[in-house]
Design a protein that fits this description.
Layout (H helix, E strand, L loop, with lengths): L1 H16 L1 H6 L11 E4 L2 E5 L7 H4 L7 E8 L2 E5 L2 H9 L1 H4 L8 H4 L8 E8 L2 E5 L2 H7 L3 H16 L4 H10 L8 H13 L1
């Protein structure tokens, strides 16, 4: 009975979130799902319009401009200056955030959620976005393990899925190694002290 109630609540929550956000995050042309929004006339603006090239060239995040943009695999990328657009257009795969620009630590748990443009790390030449400093700190406790788990769950479950369905599924049916935010924060604090 409890399981049925949870499923019904998840379905209602999914309905309430609306179709607009669902379609913005599932363009379905090779980059899906993505942490994207609708903005102006653009249907799938990744990473809230932040310039994905600036992380590599300037070592910081910068908002992109709606007037300087490229579309790649049905996703809109915005840039802070024309030079960054030119770099992206020449080699888009080099600059695309991994795991659809969702929180990399969330993907460790098969949950496509979060992803703040101001919390990021370049690892082995790839851009990874995190939901906040706590998520980044938790991920860096064991980068090889967490990277392996993130790639496993991205490949086996998340890539190509509907992010809202996947998120609710894994909030209800958690992965075996799931820890709460508080438990993760405690692990980070213990590692800092020890």
């Amino acid at each position: 009975m409890r399981h049925a109630s949870i499923v019904v609540l998840a379905a209602v929550a999914l309905f309430i979130t609306g179709c607009s956000a669902m379609t913005a995050q599932t363009p379905g042309a090779g980059l899906s799902p993505v942490n994207a929004i609708r903005d102006g006339g653009d249907e799938h603006v990744i990473l809230f319009g932040h310039d994905v090239v600036s992380y590599f060239t300037e070592g910081t995040h910068r908002p992109g401009l709606p007037s300087i943009k490229s579309e790649y695999k049905s996703v809109t990328f915005r840039f802070s200056k024309p030079e960054n657009k030119a770099l992206f257009d020449a080699a888009p795969e080099k600059y695309i955030p991994q795991f659809g620009a969702y929180c990399t630590n969330g993907i460790v748990y098969a949950i496509p959620a979060g992803g703040n443009p101001d919390t990021w790390k370049i690892i082995d030449g790839k851009l990874y976005i995190f939901g906040g400093q706590g998520a980044l700190d938790g991920f860096t406790l064991d980068v090889p393990r967490n990277m392996a788990l993130a790639h496993k769950y991205w490949t086996e479950e998340v890539n190509g899925s509907n992010p809202f369905v996947q998120r609710y599924k894994r909030w209800i049916f958690r992965v075996p190694h799931y820890v709460t935010g508080k438990e993760l924060a405690d692990q980070v604090e213990k590692a800092k002290k020890g």
